[in-house]
Amino acid sequence: MNVLHRLLDEAQRFPPEYADQLSNHLPMALTALAGLQANEAQMRRFFASYAGHFEGRSAGNDRAVPLADWPAHRGQFDAFDRLRATFIAAICRDGRDAVLRAALPLLVDGIGAAAFHGSIRTAHAVDSGHDGELAAGLAYWAARWMPLVPPTAGEPAFDRVAEWLDAIDARLLSVDAGWRSNAPLISLRMQAAVHTQAYQGLGGRLQPSLESLVDLAAAAAARYASTGNFTVLHMATAANAAISLAAWLPVDHDRALAPLWHAVAAASLASRLATLPPTAQDSAPALEWPQIRALALASDDDHLIKLVHAMAVRNALGDRPIWLAAARRAVAAAAR
Length: 336
Description:
This protein is mainly α. Helix content is about 60%, strand content about 0%.
């Protein structure tokens, strides 16, 4: 058993959230560290540091009874332990591929759950090859499942994600200039954003496709590179997760992915980029990938680790300057 699997075994005792509904990033960050070629000492150091978030919190119920009809319990956070037991049993019985193919179509319409963390944790679990963590990721997605009110129907008017997001920003400034949500969680701000005219008028106007997922990753990376916005960081890592999970969606990808685009529109509005003053650029040195990886491996910042890993994955599949720019921004932001 490799070190990642040993640590993921240990991590199963921790709850899916801590503090006030903050997602447990430990398994995601461990998998990202492994993807960045962390050694055992680096991974154990991060584990020990992050485990402090769970002091005084009770472990989950590892004797929970599987559910007969798990989709009926979507959106019920207190069903997490039973949802996890359900997915563990299903993976043991049917295998991970069959479980993903059956579960994802029933979860994708709530992909904005916990600021995309359900899907992000599931994608990292797929990368890890750890069945228990896959069950936990799917259970978290189901427990925090969050369908959004769909935008007004309309013919697609955009085929490039960056242009679509810019149009949403412009519409917000022109017709919803006073809108702002001060909710403490990204997911709550997303739920508030669906009531804006910008979301209702343009949230469904992108022509979606599988190719659009890489376009989304690039658009989110570009926005993050220029702003360092925390919500946009989640859009970038969510895009990488969606690319990883798309293979288990139905053949009719355009229709299956519609809820993702609605969630992206809501998250972009929730980021408040359109109404925030321009962010000053960090005067960070122009680090290259080996230096950025080294800094990520030495960091206790779970979001930095995950962002650098996501950009490194995208870069390995197609070298584009924007991946490096976003990774540089993450390192610079963490150093402030």
